[in-house]
Amino acid sequence: MIIKNPQFEVSAVRENQYPKNGLPEVVLVGKSNVGKSSFVNTMINRKKLARTSSEPGKTRQLNFYNMDNLFYFVDLPGYGFAQVSQAEKDKWSKFIDAYLTKRENLCGVIQLVDLRHPPTKDDINMYEWLMHMHKDVLIVATKCDKISKGQWLKHIKQVREGLKADKEQKIIAFSAETGQGVEEVHQWVEEQINNYLPPTTIEE
Ligand code: GTP
Ligand code: MG
Asked: Which atom of ligand 1 has the smallest separation from the CA of 34?
């Protein structure tokens, strides 16, 4: 999969601001600062399309990135970010929840976790909820460049056990610095969009 012309299309909060062209969407979830925006940039080989920051809480809306009119990556605000007010958190969780539960264009969820550490409580809750909702999930374990390759398997096991994910669950070691894992993620995304049925063709 080669993305030739990725475009930032729209920042949205309400449903009526989401794109209306029926393209499939792959959404990124994960705690603040785990590397969701960096992930988008790495996947499309652009340094700065999605805004990243060493300060958590950079992404504050749903950002839709159009991938050659084939699909969207949807970058969400991170969860578990302590520095925002409770009111702001409630607002975020409302629109994130609305997106994840109702959006028919959603064809896959990429949950990012930090490969270096055991999953947080928020990571575990999110994964449990995604399983409960029968979503197709890919776990991307980021920042693998920060630990030696010999340790990856042990850490992947830690992620799997922490999330209580079964052995069928794909978990990919990923690095926005080295590009490790990019090919495998592209493959997964390709499968998801190939299996996607546009909302209008879905009948009750
Ligand atoms: P929010 O928008 O706050 O939810 O954060 P985010 O998940 O979008 O994280 P972002 O992509 O902004 O990255 C946070 C910090 O981690 C930045 O300083 C990135 O440079 C760094 N980072 C992200 N991915 C990697 C990685 O794979 N390796 C290393 N070494 N650093 C990374
Ligand atoms: Mg971000």
From this structure: 7
Helix axes 36-43, 182-194, angle to 10 degrees: 90
Using one digit for the tens of pLDDT, what is the confidence trace for 18-35? Answer: 999 999 999 999 998 899
Cβ of 83 below 6 Å from ligand 1: no
**Euclidean distance between CA atoms 170 and 133, whole angstroms:** 17
Could you tell me which of 67, 50, 49 has the C-alpha nearest to residue 59?
Answer: 50
Q: What is the pTM of this model?
A: 0.92
Using a 6 Å cutoff on CB, does residue 145 contact ligand 1? yes
Instruction: Enumerate residues 6+ apart whose C-beta is below 8 A from 54.
Output: 33
Distance 169 CA to ligand 2 centre (A): 24
